[in-house]
């Protein structure tokens, strides 16, 4: 953390005077002390933010999916993200490509490994919130298509997933680990580029 020049002067004066200040300097001393307290409180190391639970920043306009190469920011309602301990991230234009990536991280991750992953995020279908991919429920086989065709549609609750399945001719509801162990056939076979059906 960089210390402002005024703060450095304040600390130097304090050191020279043994911690005592003339009355005229007390307002300045108080203001600088409060500034230092705020800087420490707002610094990332002191903020108490767990990178594994902090919502990731959205992809930039030039961020591409490491699996299919598509520009991810064009499809905000489908974004999935993997974050790493060093603060870097990979973004995907759908859950399907996310799971393909997870099936072989060294292949798609440019030297990354599965153990490097700190958090995995998907975009909830109804409210577009970023949710923990490991806790989400996924509907497969529905009539809603993503940027890469058939998708696993993520939901924060099983109840929402069930309602969507009934409304959109879904076939199954799967958890994260179920998809990892036995990916749906359309995940393995891929899918053509179709206009997405979000919001139907």
Automatic annotation (TrEMBL):
Source domain of life: Bacteria
InterPro entries recorded: N2O_reductase_NosL (IPR008719)
A Pfam family this chain is assigned to: NosL
PANTHER family, alphabetized: HTH-TYPE TRANSCRIPTIONAL REPRESSOR YCNK
Name of the protein: Nitrous oxide reductase accessory protein NosL
Source organism of this protein record: Candidatus Kentrum eta
Taxonomic classification: Bacteria, Pseudomonadati, Pseudomonadota, Gammaproteobacteria, Candidatus Kentrum
